[in-house]
Amino acid sequence: MLRLVISSVRAHVRRLLSTSLAVCLGVALLAGTMLLGDTLRANFDSLFQSALGSSDAVVRSSNTLTTDGEFAQDLIDGSLATELSEIDGIAVVAPQIEGFGQLTGADGEKLGGEGPPTFAGNWIDDPDLNPYELVEGRAPVTNDEVVINRGAADDGDLAVGDRTIVATPEPVEVEIVGIATFGGEDGLGPTTFTAFSLAGAEEHVTGQPGGVTALLVKADDGVSQEAVVSRVADVMPNGVEVISGDDLVDEANDEINADFVGFLRIFLTVFAAVALLVATFSINNTFSIIAAQRQRSSALLRAIGADRRQVFWSLAGESIVVGVVASAAGLGLGFALAQGLKALFDAFGFALPAGGLTVSTTTLVIAPLVGILITMLASLAPAVRASRVAPLAALRDVAVDRSASSRWRLVAGSVMLAGGVVAVVTGASSGALGRAGLGALLTAAGIVAIGPVAARPAGSVIGAPIARSRGVPGVLARRNAMRSPRRTAATASALMIGIGVVTVFTAFAGSLKSSVDDNVSAVIDGDLMIAASQFGGGGLSPGIVDAVDALPEVDHAVGVGTGPVSIDGRTRQVTVLDPVASTGLVVPDVVDGSAVAELGDEQVAVSEPIADDNGWKVGTELDVRFTDGSTEQLEVAAVYEPSTTIQDLVVPTVMWERHAVQSIDTIVVIGAADGVDIETARSAVESATTTFAPPDVLTTEEYVADATANINQILGLVYVMLLLAIVIALMGIANTLSLSIYERVRELALLRAVGADRAQVRSMIRWESVVIAVFGTIGGVALGLFLGWGLVTARGAGSFPIEFAVPVSQVVIIGVAGAIAGIVAAVRPARRAAKLDIIDALAASA
Amino acid sequence: MGAMTSTSTLLAPPRPAVARALAATKVYGTGDQAVRALEDLTVEIPGGRFTAIMGPSGSGKSTLMHCLAGLDTLTSGQVFIGDTELGALSDRELTALRRERVGFVFQSFNLMPTLTAWENITLPFALAGHKIDTEWLDLVIGTVGLGDRLRHRPSELSGGQQQRVAIARALATRPDLVFADEPTGNLDSTTGAEVLEFLRAAVRDMGQTVVMVTHDPVAAGYADAVVFLADGRTVGAMEQPTPERVLDALKTIGS
Q1: Which pLDDT score is estimated for B80?
Q2: Pick from A115, A131, A689, B228: most CB atoms within 10 A?
Q3: Which of A120-134, A686-700, B91-105, B203-217 has the lowest mean pLDDT?
């Protein structure tokens, strides 16, 4: 039997090769994902170890409000250091101040900003506790001396002795007195670091003398971290906590894994899952056709005495060979992929600490195993079908795949489809994302199941214009596509699932984009805006508003900031603005209560869904806890429609400043004076703010374009995914066509004999391929849009409302790509069909 | 041999040849493995007649037909249809020639399974993008008697009906000549006789030229003349053949 399997694999090597490629790609993605995940985790671990692990214990405020990865931590009293250093077993205590500060390069451009964080803090004198190490110059002494990391120095072309500006966000003129490295590297990844003296950091970064972010503790030799932590904990006042160095590293690891690495893993895993899913369809299809073609030899085997199991294994064995070979190749490719992705990260400036790929046994076992299993699983049904062939079939004539759609399939498929659609629709209308997701899976499964039933009518409709415009080849193409609906459907399914997933992503991103647009234009009424980068904690100095406000070209301006507060133990993001200044510039759509512009100092506005969820109304008194740990009772004065530009609550600046560590605006909205055109106002604002080195002054439209730029990046990734899905599906289509041609060799010969030229034969194959591809594409787009609608709607309102919008241009691109895939897939099979030797084919006894 | 050449050859009026093979040689393979399917063979197919080509297996009769029909090319020598020398034609020109000037009836698998009888019959027109010659087609379809079956697919037709559709398709373009390759090989004798009658009617009543390759003396009996082949050469000819005479002649060749 083994010999039979091997000889059979060898005979079909080409066809199996393209099937293998699908498995191989899926396994490669899976392995790559796992490898990269492990590698990132290991790299971040070693990074945090060197950044944070030098302390045996860290003392910090327990008032930490964490939201969406941003966190604002209250300061603690720096004088605690004296008390700590008296504890037995503690060698060194170093105060640490952490905040943000953006350096200006020698050319006047700001460093970093649109990406990695720009940290600022104090220089820690104890070399053991300071993860940075001076490589040039000296430590800062006066309040305007700084040490910067080598990466920032290189980027900004800054050297020891240079003077520059650090925006904290107040512009501070400083002199660079030293250059430092981080664990021997240029910096902590691509972040920048500006270290003042302790007094300098107190003055410029926090603005609160005596306050520090944390106290770093180093123990005497032989004293364990646990011992230090318990001794320190005994003497700590309320509102201050102590954590061991090891725990701190774990905490940081958990955070990055939950956040960045987690996101990356999910994203890559979705890629791998799509690839494997599409591969499963391709494999199933190929083996179905092989089984059908081999019906006669299977029957012959049965007739000469092979039992069913042997016939089953003759095909199943082939799938194992394919699975093993393809998975092994996929694993190898996965290594290359992980290397490539890592290099890509480096290129994008996410420079990770040095270190090769981390290879775990799990990766080496799981990835290939999944590949082998899905290959076997996909070939199970065809192998079983092959084993059931009657020995008499050996004597029958043509062995063509005539499998039609079964009733059982239709019923099961319809039930799944109906159940899925109901779940998606009800899930969408009631905001039950889980139900909608489950419904999405059911719908997709249902559609795949009833595919063969739909294939004939769909082929007929899609093929109609082709048949009309392409003459006989078109007519034949259409009918060939309708001929074995099961095969057509199985082939198209691969493409459909791939395109469906891509369309869901596209619909989601498109909806997000149009929602941002709607939201911004609904709330922002200003002419111009200055917006801080969305990442890295950079901000705008409140001085900018004052400078802009004073301009004659400007009517008035408002600074808008954000930050966390805690209400009833839950963290909420708030928008901070001066209500009076916001008049006519930032106008949330109020559904109840007074306008936001009329907010009093002790009042807040709340977004509608948050208010509804908590039963808050106009007049409700809320206990709002700020980052400094104190609580204020504030009255709800207005309820507004949720918007992406306004957070859960609006708090007046006056109230916020009482409790804020660092007062920062994230956007400044500017209204031009009457009769001043926007460009004049823009240049006036630009020249008035140069000392602050703020980001560009934008119109509202430009701001929206900027805000949605990263969505475009995500869409770019989605297109890569589209390409991948299409490539795999394309191989499936090419495979099916080749097999069909093999079966229809006599028809082709007859056509050629009665006068079809080669171009006509090619055209026939090509258009059949297009019908199949378009069927898959339309199915995929329809499925994707429906599920996209369901999921977006179910995700629904909330503090960040998204409304479903059809991304028309993207959908068109996907559709065209699908049709082109059909043409491309047909190139080789069509050429082979056209080259057919008529005499040989006529003589072929089929 | 002389016994096979009937005096009627001399009496028959001279007809212009619609197809000719001159010193046709076809060699498959090279070196030791070379098979000489046609060996310096010269033959003329007269117009308006029903000619049968006979010979034992491997005599080259199928190769001769394929080469005459422009499906295969000669190693050396020439083949003409009318005044057109096929060796000089490109694949595209050969295709057009097959489509417009030659008709085919094969032993089996004559029809595109996805097309109806009518679509199969008009296939050459559709491929060429030409208008259908309705009057002629009506005559052809009337002759083969398919009126009520035109909308059926081949799978819904009997073997005899399928062959009749194939004959109608072969005649549809009013070709210079129709090649029939064992057209009754897959049919029972009654149905086979019907099909042969249609071929003879096409020649007698419609003035068509038919060349039929067969190894069945009964089938050859329907032809106006028989050309005998052996080892790639013509080894004789017979006018007004009858099954008995053909059988006798074949015995002579075989020995």
Answers
A1: 92
A2: B228
A3: A686-700
SS (H, E, C) A185-249: ECCCCCCEEEEECHHHHHHHHHCCCCEECEEEEEECCCCCHHHHHHHHHHHCCCCEEEEEHHHHH
Question: Is B73 domain-assigned?
Answer: no
CB of B129 less than 8 A from some CB of A:
yes
Does residue B116 sit within a domain? yes
Residues 6+ apart with CB under 8 A from A761: A473, A748, A751, A752, A830, A833, A834, A836
- Residues A839, B115: C-beta atoms closer than 8 Å: no
**Residue B10: Cβ-neighbour burial (10 angstroms; 0-12, 13-18, 19+):** exposed
In a domain, B105, yes or no: yes
Q: Is any Cβ of chain A less than 8 angstroms from the Cβ of B100? A: yes
Is A755 in Cβ contact with B96 (below 8 Å)?
A: yes
Backbone angles phi, psi at A164, to 5 degrees: -150, -175
Name the stretches of chain A with pLDDT < 70.
Answer: 1-12, 14-15, 18, 53, 63-74, 112-116, 256, 258-264, 267, 270-271, 274, 344-356, 392-406, 533-539, 661-663, 693-694, 710, 714, 717-718, 721-722, 796-801, 843-846
Owning domain of residue B247:
2-9+48-62+95-254
**Given B95, B100, B126, which is nearest A471 (Cβ)?**
B126
Q: What is the CATH number of the domain that holds B228?
A: 3.40.50.300
pLDDT of A468 reads: 86
Q: How far apart are the first and last CA of chain A?
A: 26
Collect all residues of chain A within an 8 Å Cβ-Cβ radius of residue B126. Answer: 471-472, 475
B-chain CB neighbours of A476 within 8 Å are 112, 114-115
Instruction: Enter the tokens of residue A782.
Output: 């329809």
Of residues A274, A51, A74, A71, the one with CA closest to residue A184: A51
Min Cα separation A746/chain B (Å) = 7
Nearest to A747 among B113, B129, B169 (CB): B113
Average pLDDT of span B81-104:
87
Beta bridge partners of B228: B54, B236
Min Cα–Cα distance to chain B from A823, Å: 21
Chain B partners within 8 Å of A760 (Cβ):
127
Q: Is there a domain that residue B25 lies in?
A: no
CB-based contact A754 B66, cutoff 8 Å: no
Q: Residue B4 has what pLDDT?
A: 46
Domain residue ranges of chain A, discontinuous segments joined by +? 52-255, 407-523+702-846, 533-694
Q: What is the ipTM for the molecules in this complex?
A: 0.83
- Report the side by side order of strands in the sheet with A240-244: A90-96, A214-219, A57-61, A240-244
Structure tokens at A670: 């500017």
From A471, A751, A755, residue closest to B112, measured CB to CB: A751
Dihedrals φ, ψ of A230, to 5°? -70, -35
Task: Determine the residue among A475, A747, A754, A757 to mutate to test chain B binding: the one whose Cβ has the most chain B Cβ atoms within 10 Å.
Answer: A754
Q: Are B120 and B154 in contact (CB under 8 A)?
A: yes
Q: pLDDT band for position B114 (50/70/90)?
A: confident
pTM for the full predicted model: 0.71
Record: contact B106-A750, CB cut-off 8 A: yes
Among A755, A760, A842, whose Cβ lies nearest the Cβ of B98? A755
Asked whether residue B160 carries a pLDDT value surpassing 80, the answer given is yes
Per-residue pLDDT, A68: 39
Pairwise CB contact (< 8 Å): B113 & A752? no
Does A476 sit within 8 Å of B124, measured CB to CB? Answer: no
* Residue that is written with structure tokens 């600490």 in the block: A353
> Residue B11 pLDDT more than 80?
no
B110 to A750: CB separation less than 8 angstroms, yes or no: yes
Total domains, chain B? 1
**Amino acid A11: pLDDT:** 67
Exposure of B80 in the CB half-sphere (CA atoms within 13 A): 16
